[in-house]
Amino acid sequence: MFKGKVRVYVGVLLIVIAILAGVGGYFYQQFFLSDKFLPGVKIAGISVQGCSPEEVKQKLQSYLDNAYAIPIVFYADDYQFSTVMRDVCKQVNASQAVEKIFQEERDRDILSKITNLNGSREYDYSVPVSCDSAFKQEMLNTWNEILGQEAVDAELDMDPSQGLVVIPEVSGRTVDITATFKQIPSQWGGLEPIKAKITIIEQSPEVTAKDLEVMGELASYITWYKVAEIDRSHNLTRAANLINGSIVRPGKEFSFNKTVGPRTLATGFRDAPVIVGDTLEPGLGGGICQVSSTLYNACLLAGLDIVERHNHGLAVSYVPLGLDATVAYGASDFRFKNNTDYPVYIRVLAGGGKLSINIYGHLEYKKNIKTSHVVDEIIPFEYRDEIDPEIKTGESRVDHKGFPGYVVRSFRAYYDNAEQLISSEMLALDRYKPFDEITYVGPPGAEEIIDPLEPPVDGETDIEGDNQDEDQDSDIPEAEPEADNDGDPQIEGQPEDS
């Protein structure tokens, strides 16, 4: 009896195991080895249940071909721009998308598959919309030209009757391309014609009228030039115009070379004398060093920090010794830093032989500053004769006058309102080479041979005596240039530098 029951139980158990194995095999076949999509599965809103991957690829591609033609209208106020999804978005690789989704379906957990045999729950796999970055950039440029506006900083100007005046800023408008394209659907599926508003945002200027309302003149400096030197005056005026209106933000540096740019014929500069080493030679941009030197002195008097400055090889006449600033594009620059908490504005005017530079800033930074220099050494120049075969024998021509060199120290001193010295600093120790005076003479003639045994011919003088007279003449020293009240020698006829 007992054994009979055991056999029945074992038989039932084997039947159950067989049923479970069959059911398990069925589900394994259906859910893990099936080459069809299961019930409830969609791709981009398209039902794909019971379809093979190849059939789904065709379905998806057909949908996308139609979706690419969906119209899009971008608009702002009265402006409209019409296009289609094909131009806006990158095209989808339908084959790759379906293969990826089919693999994700196979990896889906078994419980979700078993409990959804009737397809009551939907599993909708999305196909992302990816906007074309090149199209976005093209639209940004186009729309900014039509709808945008550059912000204009507030400026200072000098009115002949009112003096310093503030020109208010103008707010700008720029397209927010990211916000605009966020209105494009992020995935394919169920798309309809799209209207997207072009998002415009306000662009604030860096400098406002409020920044400039407390502005005033911190310092000014004037130098003079010869209008008759046409090419040099042209270069000087061009550099002045390029600098005029410059605004240096707090803590920022101003670079003369970056502001003026390369000195070439293409940028509008001409040949004029420039200092090369210790000689004057024709060169593009001659004359602009007077602008950099004038600006240097204005910055000194305004109390600004000097970052880079170089002296000329030869002394120049338009600023005091030790207070010049030479520039050469790509080699020597003049740079200063705005060490105030407010913008600094530069005004440069050139005309009628007068170059004036005004530095404007917050009036709380206005200081009582004076500059000076001390000549430690005067280096005499030499007289040199050079033969010019085009000049007749016995004739000569002075090419240029000479002038001495100097060793100079320059200073900046700060005073209070009662003219009491607060502090002082040495700016630089500069050495200027002398400029030799050159006289071009004709080639020497044939030497006359005189027999020492014959008496001198009537009218001839004794050679030794002549030499003696010449030696006496040569011993007479050239008059030294007289010093002015500050001990600075007056140099007349000194050539102007670049």
Main features:
3 domains; 3-stranded mixed sheet; 27 strands
Task: Describe this structure as you would to a colleague.
The protein is of the alpha+beta class and 498 residues long. The chain has 3 domains: 1-33; 134-210, no CATH class; 214-474, no CATH class. The protein is built from 12 helices and 27 strands. It has helices spanning 2-31, 53-67, 85-88, 94-106, 110-114, 133-147, 177-181, 209-212, 230-243, 256-260, 288-302, 463-474; strands spanning 41-43, 46-47, 71-76, 79-84, 123-125, 127-128, 155-159, 163-167, 172-175, 187-188, 194-197, 200-203, 215-224, 247-248, 253-255, 271-276, 279-284, 305-308, 335-337, 344-351, 354-362, 368-379, 383-387, 396-400, 405-415, 421-432, 437-441. It has a 4-stranded antiparallel beta sheet with strand order 13-21-20-14. Strands 2-1-5 form a 3-stranded mixed beta sheet, with no helix packed on it. Helix 2 (53-67) crosses helix 4 and helix 9 crosses helix 11 (288-302). The longest helix is centred in the first third of the chain and has 30 residues, at 2-31. The termini are far apart.
